[in-house]
Amino acid sequence: MDKEALLDRQKHIRNFSIVAHIDHGKSTLADRILELTDTIAKRDMQAQVLDDMALERERGITIKLNAVELHYQANDGETYIFHLIDTPGHVDFSYEVSRSLAACEGALLLVDAAQGVEAQTLANVYLALDDDLEIVPIINKVDLPSAQPEVVKEEIEEMIGLDASEAVLTSAKTGLGIPEVLERIVSDIPAPSGDIDAPLEALIFDSVYDSYRGVVLAVRVKQGIVKPGDKIELMSNGKQFEVTEVGVMSPKAVARDFLMVGDVGYITASIKTIQDTRVGDTVTLADNPAEKALDGFRQITPMVYSGVFPVDNAKFVDLREALEKLQLNDASLEFEPETSQALGFGFRVGFLGLLHMDVVQERLEREFNLDLIMTAPSVDYQVDQTDGTQITIDNPSELPDASEIKEIREPYVKASIMVPNDYVGPVMEIAQRKRGEFVTMDYLDKYRVNVIYNLPLSEIIYDFFDDLKSSTKGYASLDYEITGYRASDLVKMDILLNGDPVDALSTIVHKDFAFERGKAIVASLKQTIPRQQFEVPIQAAIGNKIIARSTVKAYRKNVLAKCYGGDITRKRKLLEKQKAGKKRMKSVGSVEVPQAAFMSILNMHSEDTKGK
Ligand SMILES: Nc1nc2c(ncn2[C@@H]2O[C@H](COP(=O)(O)OP(=O)(O)OP(=O)(O)O)[C@@H](O)[C@H]2O)c(=O)[nH]1
C-alpha cells in the first residue's frame, strides 16, 4: 500500500468496547454486530476465511484474544474497519476493563431499559471517561414491556452527566436499532490519531501463551507500523525478537502483511519465555526505537489471598509452572511459596476477588490438570507489634501472638449499593450486620437510591453480594473501592482437629463476632468432615480459650452395604465414585479433610452474625 492508501485506511478505523452491566445484553449486541457486518462482507471475505482455516489446519491452534476486526459498509458508501474489544463486566475485573479501554477511541455504553444504570456500569463508564473516550449511549431491551427508556435516559444524564437525548434505542434480541448503532460508531467515534511515520509504539493489552507459536501479544498500535521480519524490542526490559507473524482476529486469527497506527491485532515473535512479556509494556522497533514507552497500566494489587496446595505434593513444580503461565495474561495474579504444616508445600496466591479466585482455580484444574486444595480467602492486615515493628500479613496463621500485638488494621472499602427505594431497609440491615458505617444516601431518580457505606473488606468479600441479591430480589448492584486501613478489634481464631491446631484453617475475626463465627465454623466443619475410624473432636479456640466444639463420630462408611450384595456394576460405580471423592481429600495429621472444609468460612451464611 502506498502512503496515501495507508493514511486513508487510518481514517476508516474505529476502535471501541462495549461497557455494560452483566446481563444487559452485551454478548447479544456483539453477536448482532458480527452478523450484520459479516453478511455485508461475506463475498469479500470468502478467500480470507479459507486462508484462515488452512492456517489453522496447518498449526492446529486457535488463539483467543478478545478483540475482533469487522468490516462495515456504511451508508456513506465507504467501508470501515471496526475493532471491537471485549471487556469483562464483573467488579473483580475492572482492571481488565481499563486495559481494554486503552486500546479504544470510543465505547458503547449499553444500559438495560428495564434495569437502568448499575453501580458497576457507572464505575466502568468513569474509566472510559478518564481515558477521554467518546461514549455512545445505547438503551437496550426496549422490546420488554417493563422497558422505561425515558427514565433510563434521565439516569444516564443525571448520574453520568452524558447527553442521552441521542441515545440509540435497541433490542439486541429483535435487531431493532442495530443498524443505527453501526452508523453511530462511524459518525461519533473518532478515527485513531497517531503518526504512521513515527517509530513504532504498540501497547500490549493482553497476551496468551500458545505452545506452538510462543507468546501471542494483543496490541494496539499507537504510532508507526510493524511487519513480519521486523526486529522488535520490548521497552521494559530491552529484549529483542524477530516478528514471525502479525494479524487480526476476524473472528479467527488472520495473518496480515502489517499492523499500522490505529490497528488492534496480534504479534507473534517466537517469544518463548513468558516472563519476558508484560501487559502494559510497549513494543517498538529495535533499530528505530520510540523515545519513551507508553504510559502502560497502573499496577493492580490483589484484595484477597488464599493458600493453594496440590493434593499430591509431588505436583508442586507443576503448580508453579501453571501459575507462571496464568500470570502472563493476568498481571493481577500474585503468588509466593507457602508452607503449611497441614497441607505441605504450596503457594500463597493473591486475587482481585472471589470470582477471580474461582476462575483461577478452575483454570488450574482444567487447563493444567491439577487437583488442588485451597484455603479460605483472607484479606491483608497491617500489624503494629509491641517491639515497635510493623508487619503486613495475608495469612491468618502468621498473625503473631496477641501479647505481641499493639494494633491490627484491616482494609476498608467505600461501597456504593444501587437499589430500588423499597429495598433500602434490607440493604441497611445487611450492611449494619457486616460492621458497616453509613455514609450517605442519594436519590438517583424517583425509583432508585444509591446507598453508600464504609465497610471492612473482609466482610464484603465473602457473602455480602449474595446476601444483597437475595434480599433485594436481585435488584441491588454493588461497586466498591478500597479507601484505606482502619484499626479493628481483631483476633485469630484457630481450629483444632483431634486436639491439634490446623494452620490452614485459622481465620482472623472481629472479637464481637468470634463466638458466633466459631460456632458456625465448627458446625460447618462437622458437616463437611466425613466420619473416620475414630472420633474427631473439632474445636475453635482464641489463644488458649476454646470457644466452640463439636465431634465427628467414628464410623467407617461401608458404602457397599447399600448394594445388598447384588449388582456388580453398581458396586463398581460406587467404589469409583468414592475414589473420585477421595482425590480432593488431604490427610491432616491422622484426619482426612476434604477441600470443602477449608472453605467452611464461606458456608456459614445462615448461622452468621445475624441480629448483631
Ligand atoms: N428482551 C430482550 N432480551 C435481551 C435483549 N438483549 C439481550 N437480551 C437477553 O438478556 C440476557 C443477557 O444477555 P447477554 O447478551 O448474555 O448479556 P451480557 O451482558 O453479555 O451478559 P454477560 O455475558 O453475563 O456479561 C439474555 O437472556 C439475552 O437473550 C433485548 O434486546 N431484549
Task: Describe the 3D structure.
The chain is α+β, with helices and mostly antiparallel strands and 612 residues long. The radius of gyration is 27 Å and the shape is globular. It is 28% helix and 33% strand. The strands form seven sheets. The protein has an eight-stranded antiparallel β-sheet. The chain has a six-stranded mixed β-sheet with strand order 2-3-1-4-5-6, sandwiched between helices. Strands 21, 22, 23, 24, 25 and 26 form a six-stranded antiparallel β-sheet that branches. A hairpin with a 5-residue loop joins strand 2 (67-73) and strand 3 (79-85). The model is unreliable at 39-64 and 605-612 (pLDDT under 50). It has five domains: 3-188, P-loop containing nucleotide triphosphate hydrolases (Rossmann fold); 201-285, Elongation Factor Tu (Ef-tu), domain 3; 304-374, Alpha-Beta Plaits; 381-488, Alpha-Beta Plaits; 492-603, Alpha-Beta Plaits. The protein contains 14 helices and 33 strands. The structure holds guanosine-5'-triphosphate (GTP). Residues 20, 22-28, 89, 140-141, 143-144, 171-173 line the site of guanosine-5'-triphosphate.
